[in-house]
């Protein structure tokens, strides 16, 4: 049913469905559940995901034939070689990090390109506060989840109601979150008000569509 829906979408619209569209069609509420189905189809050689994007689903030649023995079918990408990274459009206070309404995509990344294994999530950058560090508005950053960081690390921190991407500088009386943009002032959080849970993780990579 999933393959038929993907093929029909490509035939009708010229491109595959999103994870949410597949979930809605199949009655699966969680994008993780959709990914489980897609990974199973990939392992069986019925599906590939090109360009690391969920929008680049492509049925293989195997998918149009009769079911074959799993051991005889090639796997385009072995699960142990890649990581499925959930990309968030935003992070807001009071909601789980992976609140379903905030997940906008899933990106497949070679394990060797990221430090942090499966403890990595993606976040779409909004704004120009880190442009001098080569992080532009619209980029996807990859973040290793952790509650600690070293001085000078680029971190994602939950300050106030939403997440921000800044350099991390703990000082004696406050924590300074420094932008990489000379026109912007740092965010200062008093040491007595700072909690480790404010740190969502350390930035370990950037992905940009050209």
Report on the structure:
InterPro entries: LexA, LexA-like, LexA/Signal_pep-like_sf, LexA_DNA-bd_dom, LexA_repressor, Peptidase_S24_LexA, Peptidase_S24_S26A/B/C, WH-like_DNA-bd_sf. Belongs to the peptidase S24 family. This is LexA repressor. Helices cover about 15% and strands about 30% of the residues. It has about 210 residues and is an alpha+beta fold. It folds into two domains: about 1-75, Winged helix-like DNA-binding domain superfamily/Winged helix DNA-binding domain (Arc Repressor Mutant, subunit A, Orthogonal Bundle), CATH 1.10.10.10; about 85-205, Umud Fragment, subunit A. The strands form two sheets. Strands 4-3-5-6-11-7-8-9-10 form a nine-stranded mixed sheet, with no helix packed on it. It has a two-stranded antiparallel ribbon with strand order 1-2. Helix 2 (about 20-25) packs across helix 3. The chain is elongated. It starts with a helix and ends with a strand.
């Amino acid at each position: 049913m999933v393959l038929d829906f993907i093929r029909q979408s490509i035939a009708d619209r010229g491109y595959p469905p999103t994870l949410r569209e597949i979930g809605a069609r199949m009655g699966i509420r969680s994008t993780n559940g959709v990914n489980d189905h897609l990974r199973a189809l990939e392992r069986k050689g019925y599906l590939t995901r090109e360009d690391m994007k969920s929008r680049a689903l492509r049925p293989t030649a195997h998918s149009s034939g009769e079911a074959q023995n799993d051991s005889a079918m090639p796997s385009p990408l072995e699960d142990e070689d890649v990581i499925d990274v959930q990309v968030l459009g935003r992070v807001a206070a009071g909601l789980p990090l992976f609140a379903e309404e905030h997940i906008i995509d899933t990106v497949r990344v070679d394990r060797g390109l990221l430090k942090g294994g499966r403890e990595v999530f993606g976040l779409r950058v909004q704004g120009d506060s880190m442009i001098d560090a080569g992080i532009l508005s619209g980029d996807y950053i990859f973040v290793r989840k952790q509650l600690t960081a070293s001085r000078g690390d680029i971190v994602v921190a939950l300050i106030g109601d939403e997440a921000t991407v800044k350099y991390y500088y703990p000082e004696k009386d406050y924590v300074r979150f420094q932008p990489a943009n000379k026109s912007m002032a740092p965010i200062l959080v008093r040491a007595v008000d700072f909690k480790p849970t404010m740190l969502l993780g350390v930035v370990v990579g950037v992905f940009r569509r050209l």
